[in-house]
Backbone:
């Protein structure tokens, strides 16, 4: 059987071997300190071997930069979005382990779940309670198959959580099941699964098949028949009930507090974990949150823009919460390609609020270069598109809190194909290594 190239745990071990992992030498409290430590080291992978009151260690910031994601997958940064586009377009079924006893995640099983033994943090002072932040729900529909998606979960009891469920695929599965259903919850999944879980695809398409196309994946089945990654650190058998409970407040992707809502309660009935399992803490609003939730939207923008012109790169910028702002580079062949790209980008990511289109001589990851293009290639009365009364994102504090109505803006920062005497080219310099002259 073909094994995944690298598991979550193997990557954390690699980071340690490469001296890229910050390791706490003293015990850390789950209440505010654990999240505070990860915030102080945001962008640097962190491991906490001893979390006070917990039987397990915690890790976080594991995928807090694109470079870390690319390191895991063994690809260059510029190849990341094309690889995701290819995987979404060419899903493949993972290999299922025939003997569940051989699955690492099933090495240990506990029939009576006690969430108190886990390093589940209270992230910030105003939080409604301890939160599972990196958890993925795997749901199964008799006709549509499986769906996997991220959901934050506020601990409200020893084995009960309130789950934030948006009106998307999991809600559709619940509606078809009469409002309650058996599910699986996984924590400490490999990066291909994390990226796939955050991808927007059609209802009825199994994200595990996209994960398998990103990187080979092996799966196993739990007692409730749900298929999960065999190498994740933790897995829970659970049931989403019709009981409702207040969920929140909690910090969202925008680093602002989301409102309190009535959400469904999930009861966790069984816990499985690897020997020596490590708990993945996803810092809300942190760089890892932005990378994992925003970056999987870049392939959909890339695909839509590619329908109208030659798209080169896409970056959902950290300053735009990796959700509301994008920079898209194109190879311009027609004078209206920039305007076409603006409309296509909004179609590719419905929550997008502001987009800047640049030529492919501009590095979309370099804010200074993007600003330079805006300064030298934009005339506001010709190159600005403003769209009013648009449906925006529920994450945007400035949008209407009830309807999410917002205004959107696109900036065409591409240079004209015919310069009319103006010089829009960016000066190029010979690449010289100072070491050759020292």
Residues:
């Amino acid at each position: 059987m073909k094994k995944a190239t690298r598991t979550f745990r193997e990557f954390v071990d690699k980071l340690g071997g490469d001296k890229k992992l910050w390791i706490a030498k003293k015990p850390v409290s789950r209440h505010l300190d654990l999240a505070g430590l990860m915030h102080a080291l945001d962008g640097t992978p962190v491991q906490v071997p001893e979390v006070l009151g917990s039987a397990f260690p915690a890790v976080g910031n594991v995928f807090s930069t694109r470079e870390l994601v690319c390191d895991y997958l063994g690809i260059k940064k510029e190849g990341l979005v094309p690889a995701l586009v290819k995987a979404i377009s060419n899903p493949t079924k993972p290999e299922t382990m025939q003997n569940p006893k051989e699955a690492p995640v099933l090495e240990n099983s506990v029939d009576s779940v006690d969430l108190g033994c886990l390093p589940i943090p209270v992230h910030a002072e105003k939080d409604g309670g301890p939160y599972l932040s990196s958890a993925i729900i795997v749901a199964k529909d008799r006709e549509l198959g499986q769906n996997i998606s991220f959901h934050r979960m506020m601990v409200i009891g020893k084995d009960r959580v309130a789950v934030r469920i948006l009106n998307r695929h999991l809600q559709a599965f619940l509606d078809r099941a009469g409002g309650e259903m058996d599910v699986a919850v996984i924590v400490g999944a490999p990066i291909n699964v994390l990226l796939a879980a955050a991808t927007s695809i059609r209802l009825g398409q199994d994200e595990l098949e996209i994960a398998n196309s990103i990187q080979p994946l092996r799966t196993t089945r739990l007692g409730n028949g749900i298929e999960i990654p065999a190498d994740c650190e933790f897995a829970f058998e659970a049931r989403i009930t019709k009981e409702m409970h207040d969920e929140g407040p909690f910090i969202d992707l925008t680093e602002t507090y989301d409102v309190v809502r009535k959400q469904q309660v999930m009861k966790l009935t069984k816990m499985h974990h690897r020997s020596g399992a490590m708990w993945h803490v996803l810092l809300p609003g942190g760089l890892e949150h932005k990378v994992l939730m925003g970056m999987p939207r870049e392939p959909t923008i890339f695909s839509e823009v590619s329908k109208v012109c030659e798209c080169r790169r896409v970056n959902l910028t950290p300053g735009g919460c990796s959700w509301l702002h994008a920079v898209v580079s194109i190879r311009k062949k027609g004078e209206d390609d920039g305007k076409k790209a603006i409309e296509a980008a909004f179609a590719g990511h419905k929550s997008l609020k502001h987009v800047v289109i640049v030529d492919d001589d501009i590095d979309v990851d370099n804010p200074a270069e993007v600003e330079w293009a805006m300064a030298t290639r934009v005339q506001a009365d010709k190159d600005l598109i403003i769209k009013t009364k648009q449906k925006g994102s529920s994450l945007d504090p400035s949008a209407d809190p009830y309807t999410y109505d917002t205004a959107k803006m696109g900036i065409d920062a591409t240079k004209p194909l015919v310069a009319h005497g103006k010089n829009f080219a960016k000066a190029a310099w010979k690449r010289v290594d100072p070491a050759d002259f020292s």
